[in-house]
Every structure is written in structure tokens, then in C-alpha cells.
Here is the input.
Amino acid sequence: MFENTMDIFNTLENIKNRHIDCMNDCDDIVNKCHKVIMAKSKKGSLYGMCYPHPKLTKYFIFKGKVTKNDKKQDFVHYFDDEGKLLLTKRDVGKKYLNYIFYYYYERHIEVVWYTTRKNCLEIVGWIEYEKDDLIRFVESGTILKNEISSYKEYLFNQERDKVVQRIYAKPFTANGKPIQSVTSFTKVEGA
Here is the structure.
């Protein structure tokens, strides 16, 4: 666990800086991914039907279906030969609104959103795990003017079958601590 929220803001900033040119990876990922799944969402979903860690589907529910009709899809998921999700294209009106890149490391997966609407990174985060167990999912708020000013942190296995969600935002309070909101839930629909 991180001892203070500034560590998390700094980690998010590092992820943003490392993957600022993520669109340079896009063609290589698409060319090497032989498994592609297209999906149509029934309700507004951010990530689509596929997540880079299978246990996330327990908490983040997708309402939709697989489609073979590329004119009806609003998500395209690209998998490598090992079955790892490397890229999700989130489609709106035949213009890709978001490219969601997944970068795999030993105990975490970095998540990077690129938006074609503004041609820049929009959200960054990471999923932390130990063996098959989720530990946490941290995701920045929308990056505005190249600054990360908020994030959500989902803590798994704090309570049986529940997730604790903490939200932090700048500006900080007068005592130098970030504004914090804490909730807990079992499932998040449409996330």
C-alpha cells in the first residue's frame, strides 16, 4: 500500500510520461494481435466487455454482446498470442473516441487512455495483483491541460465480496491533505 496520496499522484504522472507516445504502439499491436473481439454495448460502458484481469468482471459488469458486424460494434478488443488484452478501441460514430492500451509488468498492468477528440492522453492508471488476486485498481480522472488532478482507487478483498472505492482530488485542503471520499460496493455497472 502507498503511504500517502502524493505517491499515487506521482506514479500516475510517471505512467503518463512513459506512455505519452502510446499511439506509436497502435499499429504494431493491431498487426500482432490475431484474436479480435468486437462488442456492442447496451448501456454506456467505458472498457467494453474485456478487461486485462479476468477478476475485474466480478465488479465491473458489461451489458452487451459480441458482434461480427463491424458497423454495429462500439468496442474492438485486441489480444496477443498468450491471450493478453493489449488494446481496446472504443468507437463512437465510426470515429474512434478512445484507444485503451494495456502494458503488462510482473505484478501490475498499466492502463493508458488516448482520445482522438483532443489527440492526447485522457486517463492513466494501473491494476495491481498478487498471483490471481486483485489488490487494487487506480485510475486518474480526466487529464486536463496535461495535469492529473484526481484519481479513483478501488481496493479489493478488504471485505468479503466488496470493493472499497476511494476518490481523491486536488486542490488539497488547508492542512495539505487531498479531498477524500470513501464508498464501498459489490459491483459497478457500466464501468
